[in-house]
Structure formats: C-alpha cells, structure tokens
Amino acid sequence: MSIPTDLPDQQRYQTPNSDQQHMQKNVLPTFDPEFITPLYDINDLYQNAQCFKKNPELGNKKKKQKSKKNNKFQITTQFLFGEHMPPYYSVLNHTLMNKLLMHLKNPNAPTAKVFRMYKEIIDHEREIFMDWLSNLWEENLKNRRLNSIPFIEKYIKSACNFSNDYIKSHYGGTYSSKMKIDYNIRDEVEVNTVEMKYCKRLQSAEINLITLPLVTDIENPETKVSFVDGVFDPPQKNPFIEDECCRKLSKEHSINVNICLSSMKNIMNLEKSNSLWIIPVNIDIDIDESKTIYIGGALCTGHFSQQEKSWYYLRKELKKKFRKPLLNKAVQNNCNNYNYDKWMLNVNNTDGIEKSFNILVRNKPHGIQQQFKPHNTPTVIIPKIEYQPEFGFEKVSEEQLIEYWLDTNFRCPKTKLALVSVQYNMDLMQVKYTMEETESLNSNGKDQKYLQRLYLTLDKLTQLGKGEYVLLHNPKKPFHVDLYQLSVYGGFNLLNMYFVLQQAEVSDSLVWNPIDSGVLCPIHNYFNIAPCMFRPNPENLDIQKITQLVDKFNTDRKAKEDYENAQLQRKKKIKMEKNKIKRKLKRENDILYKVKSDIK
Questions:
Q1: Cys staple from 515: which of 198, 238, 392, 580, with CB 3.0 to 4.6 Å?
Q2: Residue 531 has what pLDDT?
Q3: Count of other CB atoms within 10 angstroms of residue 74
Q4: Would you place residue 313 in the very low, low, confident or very high pLDDT band (cuts 50, 70, 90)?
Q5: Where are stretches of biased composition, namely Polar residues (predicted)?
Q6: Using CA of residue 532, residue 61, residue 384, residue 148, what is the dihedral sign?
Q7: How far apart are CA 345 and CA 325, in angstroms?
Q8: Strand pairing of 208-210 and 323-325?
Q9: For residues 411 and 204, what is the distance between their CA atoms, to the nearest angstrom?
Q10: Rounded to whole angstroms, how far apart are CA atoms 377 and 287?
Q11: CA of 184: how far to CAs of 353, 388, 449, 456, in Å?
C-alpha cells in the first residue's frame, strides 16, 4: 500500500483531502483466507511517510548538524532510520510520542496509566515496524555482518600467529587418543542437581579502575569514541602448571581442580558457534597419592567469522581504552595479575550419593567502577556489536546471555556487567550497566545444563593417571570433546589436525536480530521517537477509529487462523477416514483369504 516512487513529487505526496477522496471510492475488503493486509485504510491508520529530512519538526536539527563536521559524527547522528525511508507515520502524535518516551525512561511514572489504553495499538504498530525492518534487513542491511575491516584482519592475524607459535613451542609432541567425552549422553550415574558455591577469594590481583562514558552526546563530535587504532600486544603467557601462586594456594586449601576461567567458559558453553579450541590439562600426583588437576587457559584464536573477529578485537581494545591502575591502593598480589577464587562443586545423584570438588578458578579481572552505586563493584567490560544502529539496540540473544552469565558469575557472584554497544563501524554508541539479566539464569534453573557439563568433564579427568593431556573441541562436532595424551611411544601430531581445522571456512549468521523496543539509545532521545515506532503523526490521534481498525485487523487475523485450523482439521479427518477404509478393506481381504484357505 506504499505510494509508487516513480511518480512526480506533487503526485507522490498527496494531501490528506485528495487521499480521502480516493479512499471514499474504495470499499473495505472482506475477509479473504488467502490474503490479509494489515492496513485497510491507510489514511485513517498510517500516513505515507515522506522521509525524515522532509519533517518540519526536525529541519532545524538537520541544519544544525550540517553546520558541523559531518565526517566526525557517528552514523546514528545523521538522522533516525539513516538513509531508509520509513513507510508510514506513527499512530501517535508528537505529544503522545513524548509521553511514551517518558514512560520508557520511567515505567512507574503517571503516564503508565495512559499507555495501558494504547497498548494494543502500540503493539500493533511495532509489529508492522518489525515486519518492515526485517524485510529491509534481508534486502539491504544483512551484508554488514560480512564486511571485512582491514585493521581488524591485521589484528586477528597477529593474534593467530602468536597463538600458533605458542602451541608449537609447548604442545608440539606426539599424542595418542585417550577418551571421547559425549555431552549428549548422560553419565552412567544420573545426576539430579549440580551446585557451584562461591567460597572465598584466596588472592587478589592489582586493582584497576574502569571509567566509561556515562552519556553519548551525539551533537558534540569531540565526545566521539572510536576503536580504529588497535594494535595487538602479545601477552606474557606461560603454561598453567608453571603458575607457582596457583600451586601454592592449591596445596594450602586442599584444591582438587585448578582451572582457568576461559577454559571453564568454553567447556560449559558448547553452543557457541565456530568454537575451535585446545585446552591443556596436567594431572599431578604427589608423594601422598593426592591427585591434583590443572586445566590451563583455552587456546582458541584464529577460527572466526567476521562478527567474531570484531568481537575479539573489541574485547581486547575496550580494556585498553577504559581501564587504568587505581592509585593509592595496596597491591595484595605482586607476582601476577590474576585473581584466585575458591569454589565448591556439589553433586547429588539419584542414588543418594553426594560428590564434591574443591575448585580454584583463576581469572584476570577487568577492574572496579566508581560511577554507579554501589561503588567499587567488580565490573566486566563486554562489547556488543550493533548492526542496525539507525534503529536502536538489537536484542540480547540467548547465546549472548549465556556468555554474559559465565563472564560475570564465575569471576565473583557480585560482578556487574558493563555492556558496551559499538556500531559495526567501530564507533561507540552507549554503555549499559546491568546485572539482572544474568541473574535470571540462576533463578530459573537454566544453569543446570551448563554445570552438568563441567561436572561430567571433571569426573572424566579424575579417572586419568598422572600425565600431560589436551582437550580438543572440533566445531563440526559441537557436543563432543576429544582427549589426547602426550605419548613417548609415538602417535600423531595434534597440531597438524588443529591447523587444518583452523583453516576451515567459517560462515556468518545472517539471521535478523530484532530491535529491543524497551531500550532507548541516543538517537531516540535526540529525535523524541520511541524505539520500533514510526515518526509521529502530524495529525491528532483519533483513538476510536484506530481502535476499530486494529480490532478489525485482529478479528480478521483470528478468522484466518481459524480458517487454516479448520482446513487442517478437515485434512486430518479425511486422512483418518481413508486410513479407516484401508484398514477395513485389509481386514475383509484377510477374512476372505482365510475362508478361501479353509475351503482348499
């Protein structure tokens, strides 16, 4: 129902009066089970939009922007919706749109009562907006995820070369296959519940202060933050078994398993796409026959999609950009930059047997923040790449939520998440501090699947003897992990297989991710338009007419669903009747055959 774009301007954008004359000649369509359109009378429900720059409400702001250096602006500061023409006006006028923005900023404000009346209408508009945006994604925007950024490619290549050289120098021997761990099959002993309890911090690293921009001022190019000058810095990396602090703390606190947080995250989150990694494992038995397991950091650089390359790059550069040492604070640990935390993994089996592991988790802290209360809260900086910045923030996927939960909960249960939204062109959008989303995994029991994977891995490793081992995860078999043992009697070169897997092509997911309608970004505040809504209608809202049309749309949609269900039931009934007739004929044939056999 959009206006053809090849018409002259005076015909393309008709006045409301001429629209009404044309609409009066049309009769509202009756229900057609084959085709339903959400807009029956475009003049009563949504106005054809002209483009944001045609809107007189925003003309002054556009002129103001053009007077500045546009090449320094972020892409979202050009105007909302970017270069893409929105197809309709909103059902809300400017006054109601401003109230909706106030409601989103403060859901407990008095305006909440007003928007309960309009909820169905707003939901209906958002449904149409999402449908338009999903089509726009397929036609125009999805290739943004495939863009190769030269400086990130160079960064990843340097990181990959470092990782490969490290693996060659430390794990270049011959290995023999020892065990395959299948996470699709439950262990021989059925596990009821697995619980991971935080005990205490055994030793702390040097304290860093995290300072993040509280507000993004899109009108001031001087406040722009960009991540286009990152250079890979090779870390000081040694095998985990050589960590003297870890060995000392392990002996003092009766630790069964020492593990790096990066390895724990990879073992628990097998759903992570394109996940290729090697995890070194050392098993030590002392003179008292006490067995201690050391699970080193995951080595997983070099097998990335374009999206994962950007994420890896930002993960490193965000810490370099926003983290600095906190002065006048005593450093509790002078030997390294890690925190060492004691945890207890408790397992209750169906046969009543309880099992537990004392676990030491080594992690590298990001720092503390003093900008929000409570002050001095441990904080993790995690990037979130936005591929639709002209429209808002994309929703957090289930896979991302698991990653956030693992990255915060197992550093310290009180760790806060600083989610830094960065546009796909590496310009900062906004920072969001949150903790509630990750806490939901603990409260609803979804954590059990991931904790059981950790328990299954540790239980298998405790059955092994003293020696050097390697866990290898092949992304082609996501829920399997192969365990290899270093062998003096020969075997095969594990590195050759790892490098072959590393060179395998990695595909990018182009599935559209919806915009989060509950999160405001700077462009929404600047243009006074709520997320997932079209620009305000210049005419007053006729709530009665719009309600009638929305009700009619919902009634027709329900009628279509009922019609389809009736058709489905009819087909099932016909199929059942045919099967019944076939069974009856088969019985009759069987009886006839038996009679003929008896006669013979």
A1: 392
A2: 93
A3: 20
A4: very high
A5: 11-24
A6: positive
A7: 33
A8: antiparallel
A9: 11
A10: 42
A11: 23, 36, 11, 11
Bridge partners (DSSP) listed for residue 356: 346
Give dist(CA 510, CA 69) in Å, integer.
33
Q: pTM of the full predicted structure?
A: 0.76
Which tens digits make up the pLDDT trace of 175-230?
A: 888 889 998 865 444 567 888 999 999 998 888 888 888 777 777 777 788 898 88
Q: Give yes or no for a contact between 531 and 516, defined as CB atoms under 8 angstroms apart.
A: yes
Residue partners of 315: CB distance under 8 A and separation at least 6: 382, 383
CA atoms within 13 A on the CB side of 518: 5
Contact 194, 458 (CB under 8 A): no
Q: Is the CB of residue 266 less than 8 Å from the CB of residue 300?
A: yes
Q: What gap in Å lies between CA 125 and CA 471, rounded to an integer?
A: 51
Residues paired with 326 in a beta bridge: none
Residue 331 has a pLDDT of 45
For 238, residues 6+ apart whose C-beta sits below 8 A from its C-beta are none
E strand or H helix that includes residue 422: strand 416-423
- Cis, peptide link before residue 374, omega less than 30° from 0: yes
CA-wise closest residue to 230 among 314, 112, 286: 314
CB 199 within 8 A of CB 343: yes
Give the helix/strand (H/E) hosting 179: strand 174-182
User: What does the alpha-carbon distance between residue 134 and residue 246 come to, in Å, rounded to a whole number?
Assistant: 50
How many CB atoms sit inside 10 A of residue 573's CB?
10
Q: What are phi and psi of 432, to 5 degrees?
A: -125, 125
Q: Assign residue 491 a region: left if phi > 0, alpha if psi is -120 to 50, beta otherwise?
A: left
Report the phi/psi class of residue 531: left, alpha or beta, with left for phi > 0 and alpha for psi in -120 to 50: beta
Farthest-apart Cα atoms in the chain, separation: 108
Helix (H, G, I), strand (E, B) or coil at 505: coil
Range list of H helices, 396-504: 398-409, 436-443, 448-461, 494-502
Extract the tokens encoding 107: 């859901």
The token duo for 259 is 């593990």
Residue 537, pLDDT > 80, answer no
Contact 103, 112 (CB under 8 A): yes
pLDDT tens by residue, 431-444? 887 666 666 666 56
Beta strands 354-363 and 277-285, pairing class: unpaired
DSSP state of 146: G
Task: Return all residues near 520 (Cβ < 8 A) that are at least 6 apart.
Answer: 101, 104, 105, 392, 530, 531
What are the pLDDT digits (tens) for 394-430?
998 888 888 899 998 898 878 888 899 999 989 888 8
DSSP 386: E
Which residues does residue 339 pair with via DSSP β-bridges, in sequence order?
Answer: 363
Query: CA–CA distance from 94 to each of 43, 100, 521 (Å)?
Result: 18, 10, 19
CA gap 11, 152 in Å, rounded: 48
Angle in degrees, CA 532, 535, 541, rounded to 5:
105
Rg of the chain over all Cα atoms, to the nearest angstrom: 31
The residue type found at 554 is: N
d(CA 206, CA 103): 42
The amino acid at 278: I
**Long-range contact set of residues 186-189: C-beta below 8 Å, sequence gap at least 24:** 187/456, 187/459, 189/349, 189/350, 189/351, 189/353
